[in-house]
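Example record

One chain of 319 residues, shown exactly as stored in the release files.
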Amino acid sequence: MIEVTSKPNGKRARLPFWFRISLWIIAFLLMATAAIYQRATGPTHPMRGTFELNGQTYRYKLIRSDYSDRTNDAARVEVPDPTPADSSFTFTAKLNYKRFNTDDPFTFIPMTPEIVDGEKLLVGELPAQPAAGKLEYFITLELGDEYVSIPVRQADVDLNTAVIRFKDTVPAAILIAHVIFMFFSMLIGMRAALAALVAPSLMRRMAWCSLIGITIGGMILGPIVQKHAFGAYWTGFPLGKDLTDSKTLFMWLGWIIACVVIGVRPRKKELVGRLTVLAAGVLMMVVYLIPHSMQGSELDYSKVDQGIDPAEAIGTSDQ
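Predicted structure tokens for this chain:
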């Protein structure tokens, strides 16, 4: 461990301003990296890719999350419209879908052309499902003798599909507070870990602040968000396999252990405490690098088909 001191008598001096700012910048960059990674990964993040038709390449973005209680009762799917204005070939576009993890046959509906903000799009609507319900879908385009599947087939025998999960609306105030507390905790937790590594004078205060933030954001507001979205307060360990709940629990326990070890008053020998806080910070970073919504809530359609209320037929996914 490295400790920054600057007084001959061994007492810790106030750290130089540039050094304190540097630690905050590093902590912020670690938090921002985690936030960007969380936003760019996970099974509910939009699926992006390209397809080629009529000698042109187009970029698409397929939604993988929508609301079950929206007013128009449908999830809007959009892809670029590749139809040339002067084409003499027959063109068809179909949105194919079925309930996820069922033996249902695929149903298809025609996609219709629209111009949105000056961009030519093909649009189709997936029927909204109960909370935690999922649909898998793909788009087929045919122009003359050209055929394209979106997402593109991975192999001749395997059709690559997009999976969309539906959720109920979470009140904006609760969701915003949850997100703020979680990333505030991440920022302070990273700063606490850096303090434990090189300048422990503020380690204790920041570790406790991080624990308080996780308690409010992850262990109080998190279950409330889960309840609004999917009807259950907790679906992680030991009740289910939801990785978002489970990783929050283990991160919280990591900071509890760290705060118990360091206590509330400075000690002459801080090595064990510093190592524990550093370990809690590393655990936090690892947790945030696990994609969000992995093995999350999923509606069991086999139970729904047996007449069970969808609100009582929600489990957790294997994906």
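Notes: The longest helix spans residues 203-230.
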